[in-house]
Amino acid sequence: MVNSQAPGAPRACAGCGGRIADRFLLFSMERYWHTRCLKCSCCQAQLGDLGTTCFSKGGMILCRSDYIRLFGHSGACSACSESIPASELVMRAQGNVYHLKCFSCATCRNRLMPGDRFHLINGTIFCESDRPGAALLNGHLPPLQGSSLLTDQKVRAILI
Predict the structure, then answer these.
(1) How far, in Å, are 22, 47, 55, 132 from residue 11 at the CA level?
(2) How does pLDDT run across 138-157, given as a tens digit for each residue?
(3) Staple partner for 33: which of 1, 20, 38, 113, CB 3.0–4.6 Å?
(4) Are residues 29 and 53 in contact, defined by beta-carbon separation less than 8 angstroms?
(5) Any idea of the CA torsion for 156, 128, 132, 99, to the nearest 10 degrees?
């Protein structure tokens, strides 16, 4: 969500359909909203007052608390198989979801951080230096299945 009103043509509010002439407006789900019109479908809280994210699922617009209450956990960790609460930050790699603490190298057990290079080989995570065959390759070949790490906070990333 963004609080800004760019100069130019007035925009129509996705909530009430009215013209947005206010100094501030919100942009969420590819539409513009009056700050008073973007509300949680459950608790009616004005989402612009609660932060910079909102959630959308099943045709509802939700605050973080109601999203978690209605849709529970975000799945199971691919490393430990334990449940991951929807409110918890996670790491994702090639369709797998991990607790932050579980996203670590299988060899050295060092936890991988956002931006670290890693390799996912047959479902097992390795850091750059512990990749199988890394000592033989001396870094002359490109990464096998390298990826960047991202934490999940925005609506598009965490909806399952």
Answers:
(1) 10, 19, 22, 55
(2) 444 444 333 333 332 222 22
(3) 38
(4) no
(5) -40
C-beta of residue 41 within 8 angstroms of C-beta of residue 62: yes
Rounded CA separation 48/64 (Å): 12
* Cross-strand pairs, 120: 125
Task: Report how many helices (DSSP H) and strands (DSSP E) the chain contains, helices first.
Answer: 4, 13
Secondary structure E strands in 82-147? 83-85, 90-93, 96-99, 118-121, 124-127, 146-147
Please give the Cα distance from 33 to 138 (Å, whole number). 54
| 89 class by beta-carbon count within 10 Å (0-12 exposed, 13-18 middle, 19+ buried) | exposed
Going from the C-alpha of 10 to that of each of 3, 35, 53, the distances in angstroms are: 15, 15, 24
pLDDT at 74: 61
Name the amino acid, one letter, at 14. A
Q: At 57, is the secondary structure helix, strand, or coil?
A: strand
